[in-house]
Specification:
The chain is built from 3 helices and 10 strands; from the N terminus they run E-E-H-E-E-E-E-E-E-E-H-E-H. It has helices at about 15-55, 175-185, 215-250, and strands spanning about 1-5, 10-15, 60, 75-80, 90-95, 100-110, 115-125, 145-150, 170, 190-195. It has a 5-stranded mixed barrel with strand order 4-6-7-10-8. The protein is elongated, with a radius of gyration of 28 Å.
C-alpha cells in the first residue's frame, strides 16, 4: 500500500495500481508529445512546399540530378519534344464524380538526359473502357512548363497494377518508371512534371498540394491524448480518495 498527500489530503492505493497509473500516464503524454512533433513536421513540410511552389522555374536541362523530395512542387522548364506515340493512361481516376484517366506523355530533353513523364491532365473515360480517348498531340511542343511531383498513388494498390499492357497507349493504375522505361527502351526519371494549366496540349488540370493529415489535426489529436491523461489522473485521485474515505467509514 502506498500513501501520499495532495493539497493536504491523504490518498492510498496499491503499488500495482500506482505503477499502472504512471505507465499509462507516461504513454498518454508521450503520444500527445509525438502528435505535437508530427504537427511541427507537417507545418515545416507545408512551408517548404509552399516556398518551392512559388520559387522561380528550374531549368531541368541544366540539372544533372533531381532530388524529387526537396524539389517537390517546384516549377520546372524542360526543352525537348514529346514522344506522342508512347503514352501512359493512369486508370481509375475520378474527377467531379466522373471516371477517367490521367494522361502521362514522355518528354525527351534536348540535353540527352532521362525522359520525363509529363502529366497532361485528366480525360473522361468515354462511352466504354474498350474505346480509349483520343490523346493525340496536335502541335509540335519544344518546351514544357509545370511542377515537379511524385507519381499519383492509388488508395488501394492491387497486385500487378503497375504492369503496362501490350499496346500503346498503355493503361496502368500505378506508375513504375523502371517497368515503363524497359517497355519504352529509354531511361525515365522517377518523377513527373504536372503540366501548367496555361500550357497547350493538355487536359483538365487541378493540381493541389497533398498532405495526408494537416498540422491542425495533429494538434487536435495531441489535445485528445493530453485530455485522456488528465482524465486518467482525475479518476486515479478520485478512486484513491474514495478508498480512503471507505476505510475511515469502516
Amino acid at each position: 500500500m502506498i500513501k501520499f498527500n495532495i493539497w493536504g489530503l491523504e490518498f492510498r492505493c496499491s503499488l500495482l495500481a500506482f505503477a499502472a497509473y504512471l505507465l499509462l500516464l507516461a504513454l498518454l503524454c508521450s503520444l500527445g508529445l509525438w502528435q505535437l512533433g508530427r504537427g511541427d513536421q507537417k507545418r515545416a513540410l507545408l512551408e517548404r512546399q509552399q516556398a518551392a511552389a512559388t520559387a522561380e522555374a528550374l531549368d531541368l536541362n541544366q540539372q544533372t540530378e533531381i532530388d524529387k523530395e526537396l524539389l517537390r512542387y517546384r516549377p520546372a522548364l524542360l526543352n525537348g519534344h514529346y514522344d506522342g506515340v508512347h503514352q501512359v493512361l493512369i486508370d481509375n481516376q475520378i474527377l467531379d464524380g466522373k471516371p477517367g484517366y490521367l494522361v502521362l506523355t514522355p518528354f525527351l530533353p534536348d540535353s540527352g538526359q532521362p525522359a520525363v513523364l509529363v502529366n497532361r491532365g485528366w480525360v473522361a473515360l468515354g462511352t466504354s473502357r474498350e474505346a480509349l480517348p483520343d490523346i493525340t498531340i496536335n502541335a509540335p511542343i519544344q518546351q514544357v512548363l509545370g511542377r515537379i511531383n511524385h507519381f499519383p498513388e492509388p488508395g488501394i494498390r492491387l497486385k500487378g497494377a503497375e504492369i503496362p499492357g501490350e499496346t500503346w497507349p498503355v493503361r496502368v493504375q500505378v506508375v513504375d518508371s523502371k517497368l515503363l522505361a524497359a517497355k519504352l527502351g529509354y531511361t525515365l526519371a522517377d518523377f513527373q512534371i504536372e503540366l501548367d494549366p496555361a500550357q497547350a496540349e493538355g487536359y483538365q488540370r487541378q493540381w493541389k498540394i497533398a498532405v495526408a493529415i494537416p498540422p491542425e489535426k495533429h494538434r487536435a489529436y495531441a489535445v485528445q491524448w493530453f485530455g485522456l491523461a488528465l482524465t486518467l489522473t482525475a479518476l486515479f485521485i478520485w478512486n484513491s480518495s474514495r478508498k480512503q474515505h471507505r476505510g475511515k467509514t469502516i
